[in-house]
Predict the 3D structure of the following.
Amino acid sequence: MSGSEKQARPKLPRRALDGVLLLDKPLGLSSNDALIKAKRIYLAKKAGHTGTLDPLATGLLPLCFGEATKFSQDLLEADKTYEATMRLGVRTTTGDAEGEAVQTCDVNCDEAAVVNAMQQFLGDIVQIPPMYSALKRDGKPLYEYARAGQTVEREGRPVTIHALQMIACALPLVTFRVTCSKGTYVRTLAEDIGETLGCGAHLTALRRTGVGALTLEHAVTLDALASLSETQRDERLQPVDALLSTFPEIRLDGDAAKRFLHGQRLRLADVASTPLDDGRMRVYAQDDGRLLGVARAGEGVLAPERLIVTAQ
């Protein structure tokens, strides 16, 4: 067939989807590339992710479609859980296996010493962000300075290590599970544990197993997703309020629901039968249980924050 006879392949129409996909991100793929692939598989009009995973990290990457993108910030703020493996005795340029070794030391500690060192990082700590990170200085990501051989001053950032548990120890390799606040660099945690032990360390593997209340249990890989029918793929989408499960809920009757969807503030005394604590809440329609959006309760009023446009 000649070029003039060839017809351009028609573009498939994009679909308006609302929901959350729990993706098990593969090794070597950036979070944005994983998002693009999933969006293409679903032919979705609108999608976004909820915080990046390094290409060398695998595991839970919640992807938001349609109206769910309005609530992705809530997962950015959520605690994260990881399973990680560090190698003691070798420091690298990046703090992980992607970098070049810059120093090698003998590992003279035992398992008890490693456990003791790990316990020192429980609770509120301060981390110096790594040079190989996307944090910006003067409008330029730190990794650009690092790749140019430059090191710039970084301020320490407070983070919280909620739980830190050894899973396996076959020195010089140590596998551990950590639950931490947003902004925590697990490779920096590994490096700091290595410094405490006097031998240095770097991260060799990282897998995210939890984001807020979401876990890997119902996650799906890109390959598995591509093999499903459209109906089966849609069934893998969690509802929009999967992102909001930690918020208390309130249900509004017909008139109050309409006013809420018009962005009106409501008196709590008029819509709640019992006193409510101040804070953010997920809001549903009382008649059919539809999610209407998120509001903040306080000072005697329920103030809309984000609304679901498709709720009518």
